[in-house]
Design a protein that fits this description.
By secondary structure, the protein is mostly helical. Strand 3 and strand 4 form a beta hairpin. The termini are far apart. It has one domain: 2-methylcitrate dehydratase PrpD. Helix 8 packs antiparallel against helix 9.
Amino acid sequence: MNKTSEVQRFMPRVTRRNFVQTATSLGISSSLTSFSALAQIHGNKPVNLSEVLTQSATGLRFEALSEDVVHLAKLALLDTIGCAFGAFSARPSKIAIELAEQVTARRPATVLLRGSKSSPDLATFANGVMFRYLDFNDAYVSRTGGAGHPSDMIAALLSAAEINGRSGRDLILGIVLSYEVFCKIGDVFDYLGNGIDHTTITGMGAVVGAGLVDGPQPRTDALCDWHNCWREYCHSSGPLGLAVELESIRSG
């Protein structure tokens, strides 16, 4: 059996182009309380996007995920690691790995493919460079016309899961949540139109997902830290903050 037929056997109904769209739509419909529903719960009170995301994150459980969502999260992880294999020998990857290997930590994380240990942040950096360098990792085109690579967030989730001794189920849960955050914000907020690159949004998704993965129970303190930082950012950015606030209430 050649490589093409093997891939087709393994992924008979999922194409690369519609993979993220499918994963996102499945996850939103089956795993998380919708943003619009949470807005209704608050009644007439002003609803902040970060508050909605925090409530969604702390209420998410692996048992709520459908088999399709779990399967697609596994495929996202495998596809991302495959990108790391392809980029391992590239010069930027070597530079990032060399930098990471200069640092040690009491709670280290693994630099993939090398097996060396570094601080969680630099292991995340090195792994993220390998995931992203070839530009072969997944892409999501939002309803507002933005485009980005949600699998960039997986590097942070791997480090968070490793240093806290979390299970594969916990990692999958973090992946699903991170994708939800990234894709949903992109659907309701025109970040490109406001001069913001998609990497700002992946940072938000990664923090929320890593906060969930970061302990035996969802880390509400980490999520609240993210919430407070994002709220301050929104309030200090004039029309940008107002746009996010309005869209978080208006869109589901």
